[in-house]
Amino acid sequence: MLRFHIRKQIIEDIKAKGLYVDTTSNPMEVPVCTKSGDIIEPLMKPQWWVNIRPLAEPALEAVRDGRLEITPMAAEKDWFHKLGKFQDWCLSRQLWWGHQIPAYFVRVAGQECDSGDINYWVVGRDDAEARKRAEEKFPGVAFELEQDPDVLDTWFSSGLWPFALMGWPDNTDDFEKYYPTSLLETGNDILFFWVARMVMLGMHLTGKVPFAKVFCHAMIRDANGRKMSKSLGNVIDPIDVIQGISLDDLHAKLESGNLDPREVSKAKEGQVKDFPEGIPECGTDALRFALCAYPLASSDIKLDIQRVDGYRKFCNKLWNATRFALMKLGDDFVPQAEAQLTGR
């Protein structure tokens, strides 16, 4: 029976036993899949977990003893706050893509095997290793192996990046030469999701901190402080700021994407509100100047296009002033090799 039919049948069974009291409507928002039209409901499912404490403690100690430096100071405090909770890490994901979890269910012939019983599971780097462990666990009996269809958490797979990229687990020339690296520059929003996982897995699997320094830059948000989102229509493409773009062309970019038509309509409204005249041509220098002018220690940058356009005008004044000065200095002017005070 489908779950909707079961719910009706449960009511009928309760009525048949004389236990029924009343039915009351409960207004609620029902999430619906945009692709299939199915109603989305939570489903309890066993997951694979990792005890985070043995991995997190060395990562915390690496920052304390100076092997790993995290800047700015606010990011370091966040490191200790989140890693220090030692919250277990759920590794399994029910997706179509990713590294398949190397866990195998042993279906023993002639037995009622419950996949929820951990005793019927083995792990292995491949089928052969898993089969060997299953034979040791269930000697002399026939069985079949079924690899768990779940995949590893994206952050687990990406946490292997610093050393897997260099040929690990083989001790390659690239691994010897380039691992560990010196500096990682990233956003503060993924300090725990990605950076912490790289450090924990790197130290556990290679014995080395994957990089000496971590610099967390601010998150670039829109002028209202909202996180940039395609569905909101507030995503700012740096190329559009540099070259400029009309409102109609901004709309056209939305229509050429893969947004749901309802989200496209909502995003267009956001673009009309944020960029009623489109985005003016600001140039590369003005965009760089604007980003550098915001406080580096801030966790967020509220990027205002009008401010970037103002810096474009300022850069234009500098350019004109420089051209005027060079015109007055003459063609034979040679700048000094070193800057010195002249008293003039």
Structure summary, number of beta strands? 12
Classify the secondary structure makeup into a structural class: alpha/beta
The general outline is: extended
- Counting DSSP H or I runs of 4 or more residues, the number of helices is 13
Distance between the termini: 92 Å
What number is the mean pLDDT? 90
With strands numbered from the N-terminus, the spatial order across the biggest sheet is 2-10-9
Percent of sequence in beta strands: 5-15%
Indicate the radius of gyration in whole angstroms.
29 Å
Residue ranges: pLDDT <50 for 5 or more in a row?
none
Detail the topology: elements first, then pairings.
Layout: H1 3-16, E1 49-50, H2 53-64, E2 69-71, H3 73-83, E3 89-90, E4 92-93, E5 103-108, E6 121-123, H4 127-137, E7 143-147, E8 151-152, H5 154-159, H6 161-164, H7 173-178, E9 181-187, H8 191-206, E10 211-217, E11 219-221, H9 238-243, H10 247-255, H11 261-274, H12 283-293, E12 300-302, H13 305-329
Parallel strand pairs: 2-10, 9-10, 11-12
Antiparallel strand pairs: 1-3, 4-8, 5-6, 5-7
Short key terms for the protein model shown above:
344 residues; alpha/beta; three-stranded antiparallel beta sheet; 13 helices
Structure write-up:
With 344 residues, the protein is an alpha/beta fold. It is 42% helix and 13% strand. The chain has helices at 3-16, 53-64, 73-83, 127-137, 154-159, 161-164, 173-178, 191-206, 238-243, 247-255, 261-274, 283-293, 305-329; strands spanning 49-50, 69-71, 89-90, 92-93, 103-108, 121-123, 143-147, 151-152, 181-187, 211-217, 219-221, 300-302. The model has no long low-confidence stretch (mean pLDDT 90).
